[in-house]
Amino acid sequence: MKICRYNDDRLGVVDGDDIVDVTQALDVLPSVRWPVPPGDLAIAHLGDLRGEIERLAASGERLARSGAVLKSPVANPDKIIGAPVNYLKHQDEAQKDAGINFGTDVKTINEYGLFLKANSSLVGPGEGVAAKFPDRRIDYEVELAVVVGRGGRDIGEGDALSHVAGYAIGIDMSVRGTEDRSYRKSLDSFSVLGPWLVTADEIADPGGLDLELSVNGEMKQSSNTSFLIFDVPQLIAYASRAFTLHPGDIIMTGTPEGVGPVAPGDVMTAWVESVGKMDVEVRA
Ligand code: MN
Which CATH number is 2-71's, of 3.40.50.1970, 2.30.30.370, 3.30.43.10, 3.40.630.30? Predict the structure, then answer.
């Protein structure tokens, strides 16, 4: 099932080129009061929600996908986790290209561990990316994004995929420079998640998915998640040793080679096999 959030926080299920409005399914979510439980309420109750979505999908109003503004399918993550330098060929290009490394040593994910991106940087593809800091190089990074379903800590690799709610495409936007990643990658709109959440039952193995990104129709990145240094189960296990994972946490698994700059007016098209495709505009 492909679940999206669109327009004015409508909930939809994707059916071919259409979206079926199943917003009413949100009525099954419990009402909450302060302090709200950590994590995304819809992802935390995805099991109940799915039943309602399936029931409503048969009769819901349909609209063309092309006419909808797609938002991040996760509205309220507890955290966005990033994986630095998690493809060998990206490690190579980052070590060789001063435009990427800015004179800093490029280490391995074993040495860096993980990083966090501000939740306020999260947008959907329909919202576009704002290229703040016009004098700086701003890069795209296409990534497989994992959305945590069942939270936990000290999760074992063998059990890790049972904690996944689903998958999406992530674009981890980055200002190149010497500042800490959490600063360079947390500007408003610098975490794009979309075009929808594909529930985990549709992707048995996230370790063999092609992924691509083109800019203005020109292919820039083309790889496969089989080249991840830390694969999805390892990333979940590694992250959950440090921080408790909550429903809706987003893990951006790292980008393959081919990163490069974008400027206002550019359109990024990102695709992940079995997930989908999204166009994202860059604006000033
Ligand atoms: Mn990245």
Answer: 2.30.30.370
